Amino acid sequence: MSWKFPIYDDLARDVAAAVAFLRTRPEISPAKIGLLGRSEGGWVSALAASHDPKISFVIMSSGCAVGPLEETLYETRRGLRESGVSPDGVEQAAKFKTALWEFDRRVAAGKTSVETLRSERALLLKQLDDFRKAKIESLPYVMDPEVEDRRKFAAIANMIFYNPQPALNALRTPLLEAIGTDDEAVNPATTLSALEKLRSAGHNITTKTFPGVGHSLLKMQGTTILGYADGYLDFIVAWAHDHVS
């Protein structure tokens, strides 16, 4: 896979290689290595640890326990609503993005005729033009399968339709989710619900919410950064310490 289009399996292998290297260092205890993944890094860290039960812990910092498709549509809908877009416009944009990614997946599969893909792409371009005229949102570019490398479509499809549940189900490592209640990119409700189901099934999962902060977990005053949410750094350090002691 091209470095420009990594998939989560590629990134998890990079993490595994980094952990393997750390275990060779005499100044590092190999039994006390944990992972902290920010945002998408939560998927990557959980995936890497699902293959390596010797990893001491995983911290998902504003991580997501549902897939990229659901997360991205949440972010799209929330952002458009806050921009004043009508409910119909919001749903049109969400449907367009879903259709675009389904198009990418069909191109990647290589089972759809050139004529059908050409017709589907023309329809997507027409919808995209309508969105631009309505100034609803700057939507993604519609790649041309007759020009672009099919591996690009495959990489996008693999990313957007990634399902984190198998990795989370396979995880035998303690996991902490730290998330802001006002997260604009990850829906706290669906992620916390998914993690609660895993905890009820016997997984070692801790969740911690931080009121009044968004995806960055930073406190803001206008455009001024005041620092991380109160207690965030202390909490994750103490939790990690408990799980390597």
List keywords for this structure.
52% helix, alpha/beta, Rossmann fold, 245 residues, 2 domains, two-stranded antiparallel ribbon, single chain, four-stranded parallel β-sheet
Question: How would you concisely characterize the structure shown here?
Answer:
This protein is of the alpha/beta class. The protein is built from 9 helices and 6 strands; from the N terminus they run αβαβαααααβαβββα.
Task: Explain what the structure shows.
The structure is a single chain. The chain has helices at residues 8-22, 41-50, 68-82, 87-109, 114-134, 150-160, 165-170, 188-200, 232-244; strands spanning 35-38, 58-61, 175-180, 205-210, 218-221, 224-228. With 245 residues, it is an alpha/beta fold. The chain has a four-stranded parallel sheet, sandwiched between helices. It has a two-stranded antiparallel sheet with strand order 5-6.
